[in-house]
Every structure is written in structure tokens, then in C-alpha cells.
Amino acid sequence: MRQLTGLDASFLYLETPNAPMHISGLAIYDPSTAPGGEVRFKQIIENTTRRIKRLPTMSQRLVTVPLGLDHPYWMADGTFDPEFHIRHLALPKPGDWRQLCILISRIHARPLDRKRPLWELYVIEGLDNMEHLPKGSFAIFSKMHHAAVDGASGTEITAALHDLSPDAHLDAEPYAVPVENEPTAAELLIRAQMNAIKQPFRFVSVARNTVPGFAQAYNRLRKGELQRVGPIPRTRFNGKVSPHRVFNAVHFPLGEIKGIKNAVVGATVNDVAITIVGGALRKYLLAKDELPPESLAAMAPINTRDRREKGSGGNIVSAMTVQVRSDIEDPVERLKAVHAGTAEAKELSNAVGAKSMTDYTQFIPSTLTAQAARLASRWGLMNRISPIYNCVITNVPGPQIPLYNTGARLVANYGTGPILDGMALFHAITSYCGDFAISATSCRQIMPDPDFYRQCLLDSFNELKRDTDKIIARAEKNARVAKQSRKKASTKAPARAAAKAKTKAKSSAGKTRAASAARRTSTARTAIRRRRDA
Fold first, then answer.
1. pLDDT for 518
2. What number of other Cβ atoms are within 10 A of residue 40's Cβ?
3. Which residues contact 425 (CB under 8 A, 6 or more apart)?
4. Model confidence over 57-94: pLDDT tens digits?
């Protein structure tokens, strides 16, 4: 039995009826690569079950401490019902992208059952009218509670569910889920009391390791060497959310995203993603006549997991706040400003210590946090306080090699995330096998037109690509001109050297003839003087 960390437990405490705190992934598959060219639902259940039984995150359920006096525990009780967790759906005809987005929005809005392991898979068939997808494709939509996984640990689970070839086979040896005895209420209360006694000593240890970093960052901020993001404007995305969700996504060739970043020295793929989102938010809010003069800001999670913590599950993550520069109209200037801002944010995060705030989350008071979240939602307090940020932009890079599930090739990958009061827009950036996707999740009341926001993302990308292509074209033209000039110079150099040598030789011959004539004249004059003297 393993106790949740303060950060993991915070996602349970922050959960309200209007704000389920799970993260999800949408994977689309082409079954033509599978043996026989098709995949049956029964095969998916069997393949998934045999794999996830070995993953503790997928077979453990929550055990709560009485009266919420301490963080909950994960416990494996040996019960596992794959038919409850893995469900089968189908789109009605024609089976297009809009229908899929509506279905994903509805499924994502439903909270997970806390009495069971906190995950669900939905196999969705009928994707027969999807652009760039073969008829007969199917999707798998996975939901996992944020208390159990973050982006990095979710990627590890995805890797465990996939193969590198369509004909891979699992070991036939069965795996039994371990069984742990559920503790009594008295045992849990005793553990909570022991943890309460140890807590002050843990706090002193954490403070000793983190205070120097905070002091250094404060001094640099005071001297102006570092800058904090602010002020952050209030937008429609900082209000109270409803229980309803919307989802949409765009995708681009990863090579084009890398080409865009090469137009600005030092820029990264993540900078390009933030720039595209900043342009889309600018267009969307302009259309609503709601664009503030200040730049919107995004929370960007930072993976702080090291090698020793790989495969541990849970959340080992910090965050930084970055401006999306929605206040800048020119796409290239926005990219330059975003790059400068992310560099500043990373420097501030490094000065503080990316893991410092994560260390302090273990001291989150369980009872007070849960009650505060419910009261804040009930009273709409997020509408009255200054925003911390306007949206979330999280980048979860994926493999650049093909993956297969039950023989079917993964062809597209998207992500969704939780939204809550005060932060009603979540962007998931994913990349896979040469494809780059930006997915957006929001509240239906706050963003009633997700198709329009999708178009804003497309337009923002197209403008950025157009202007950076011009910069790259000019740079390539200048490079060609310089190369041709060097080539001409190198061709003319031998001719100039030969002409110079010839001129020098002529000059030398002339000097020699002149010297000979002078000597003859001098000899003749000497002979005349001698005859005259005689």
C-alpha cells in the first residue's frame, strides 16, 4: 500500500462536480496492418488486460483516511474487471471528425468512479468519414485520473500498451494482480497520527534544501536580473466552468514546425507551439471584442522526473508561467518575444529550483484543501481574484517511430486535460511519427464555438509559416549570393595573380634594359674622357 504524495492528492481535493481532474488521450488506429486486416473488440480487451495487469497504476484503487485527516493510499485488492474499464462505442453515420469531437467532449466531462481503479478506455468504431484516414479506422479514448499519472508517466503507460511491429506477441504466461489487505479505520488513523508527528521534521528538511534557492531568486528579482510575468489580464477563460466540455484539435507536419523555429535563432518547437496558441487566442478574443492590451499568460508544466523515478507513476512535475504574447500582431515578432519570455521563465525556474514547489506540496492540508475547492466553486470566488494564468499549454513529445496496438497502426494522437474554475482552457501539444498536434479542451459555455477556435489555430499557424518562410527564403538567397561571390572571387584570383606577375616581369625587364643602357653610356663617357686627357 502506497500513500499519495501531496501533489497527487491535490488533484483529488481540487475535483468538483463541474471539474473532473482526469487527463485523457485520443489515439486513432488503422486496422489494415493487423493480421487479417481487422481488429475485434475482444482482442483489444485481451491485449490490454494482459498488459495493464503489470502496471500498478492500473490495478490499484483509492483508500481514504477517515475524516480526511491524511492523504489517501493506493491499494491493490486483487479485483480487476476489464469489461467495466474497457467500453465499446460507435459513431453514427457518416462518422466524421465533428461527431468524434462531440463524443469525446461528452465522455471527457464524466468523472471517474473512485471506488475502482481510476481509469477507463473507450474503443470507438465507425470513423468512416475522416480526412486522411482509411475507412474502417477506430479510436481508443483513454481516461486516467491526474492523481495517478502526469504527462510523462502517462507516456510510459502508452508505451507499455503498444508494440514496435504489428506482429508482436505477448508472453503467454498469465500475471496475477497482487492482493493487499485493506487496513481498518483505526490503522489508518494511527498512520495519520504518526505522519502528523513527523511532518515538522520533514518541513525543516525541505526548507533547508529550498530556502537558499528562493533567496537567490528573490535577490535577482530585486536587482532586475530576472523578471516575473505580470500583470495577467482577466478573460472569459478565467470564470466559473460548467460540467460540459468541448474538444477540438489541429495537426501539422512536424518538419514544418521545425522549419518555423529555424527562422529565429535559439527558438524551440515549444516556442512555436506557444506562438501559434498566442496568435489563435488573439484572433478568437478579437472576434469577441474581448482582447486585452496585456498579453495572456499560460501555465507550462515542467517534468522534473529523474531516472530513478521513471516508471513510478504519479505526478513529479513543476510549472512555469509564460506569456503567449497575444498583444503582438506580427507572427515573427511574437515568436521572438515568446522565445525571450520562455528563456526568462526557465532561468527563473532554475534559480528557484524546478522541484522546490513540488517538495512543498507534501504539506498540503487534506481536509482544508478539499473544502476550500468546493467553497470556491460554490461561491464563484475565481471570478473575484486576480488570475494566476489564462490557460494551460503542456507539451508531451511522443515517439517518432510507428506504434501498433493489437496489430493496428497508430496514425494520430491527441490529448485532453482538466479545466477548472479560473482556468477554462487546456492545450495539449503532442507529436508522433512526423506529426505535430495541438488539442484544445474547454467549457461549452465559455467556448461555445470550438470549430471557430480550431480555425483560429490554423490561421495562426499559416500566418506564422508564411512569414518565416519569407525570412528563410531571404536567408537562403543571401547565402547563395555570397557563395557565388566567393566562387567568382576564387575564379578571378589566378588571372589577377598572373597579370600582376606579368606586369612585374615587364617592369623588371625594363629596369634591366635601362640599367644596361646606363652602364654603356657611362662606359662610353669614360672612354671619351680618357682619350681627351691623353
1. 62
2. 12
3. 237, 390, 391, 392, 419, 440, 441, 442, 446, 447
4. 888 899 999 888 888 999 987 777 888 999 999 999 99
List of residues 6+ apart from 492 with CB closer than 8 A:
none
d(CA 23, CA 109) in angstroms, rounded, equals: 11
- DSSP-H helix ranges across 56-96: 56-59, 82-85
CB-based contacts of 387: which residues, under 8 Å, 6+ apart?
232, 233, 234, 235, 238, 297, 422
pLDDT of residue 40: 93
Residue 390 main-chain phi, psi, to 5 deg: -105, -25
CA distance 300 to 147: 18
Answer yes or no: are the C-beta atoms of 77 and 116 closer than 8 Å. Answer: no
Cβ-in-10-Å burial (0-12, 13-18, 19+) of 263 comes to: buried
Q: Report how far apart, in Å, the C-alpha atoms of 101 and of each of 15, 171, 352, 427, 439 are.
A: 23, 36, 40, 15, 11
Express as a percent the part of the chain with pLDDT over 70. Answer: 75
pLDDT band at residue 229 under the 50/70/90 scheme: confident
Active-site residue flag, 132:
no
Query: Of 22, 108, 145, 146, which is the active-site residue?
Result: 146
Cα separation, 347 vs 338, whole angstroms: 14
Q: Which residues contact 67 (CB under 8 A, 6 or more apart)?
A: 367
